[in-house]
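Deliverable D4.2, example record:
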Amino acid sequence: MHTDTHPLTKDLVGNKLQCNSCHFDGGKTKSLGSFIGTARAFPAYSKREKSVQTLQDRINNCFMRSMNGKRPIIDTEASVAMAAYITWLSEGLPITLNSKKPVNPYFTKVWPNKKTNPLVKKATHKNYLSGKNIYMDQCSDCHGENGLGTEDGPPVWGPDSYNTGAGLSKPNKMASWIKADMPKDDPSLTLQEAVDVAIYIDAQEHPDFDLVKHLFPKEEMGYYNSKVLTEKHTVRSNFKKPWNLDIDIIRGDHKIK
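Output generated by the structure prediction step:
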């Protein structure tokens, strides 16, 4: 799970995140990032890739997005090892294919939590400021006042955080994550507070996502199981679509390109 330092994966990671950043204790906790039960959901159709994804596909895509790096090649030692570990965590559980999306079937209804959608859609600068206050009070000790991380928590914005193609860069998904799992070991925020914090964090600077830059050259990448070969996101576009939010109005400045 220490993908940023392990010799098989360290060259594939482009920031200071690792699997353990979101999947606590190697994915063995009961948090939203648990891997227990995940393997039994695959293969599963993904609207994003417009294809049926294997467990290896799902894991490897995370390297491009949450870890802002290169997608591991399918069936290489690293790819097989990670899939084998996650499969082992589901040993003894019945196969329960997820017909809705490629996620752990335990979390289909909460990732993302649909109750966050109307709250994100009507977000204003006031929610941004509320999120900042909550962040400084309850999040900054671990993630830093500047969001760049500390010894106790990973960066949540800046060049070493997840890029704008990651699930957590979408305010509704970030809010779902915060509501379920933050603060760590004591998730206690209301849904509105979680949305406000998500708005604040995701409105900060994050690396842009351009799919082609995260794939190895065609002659090296092997089989890329996706019908979508071009995809780009920015902080600005993540607020514009599908929420129709103007990032400048949300932040109250013009600092986001």
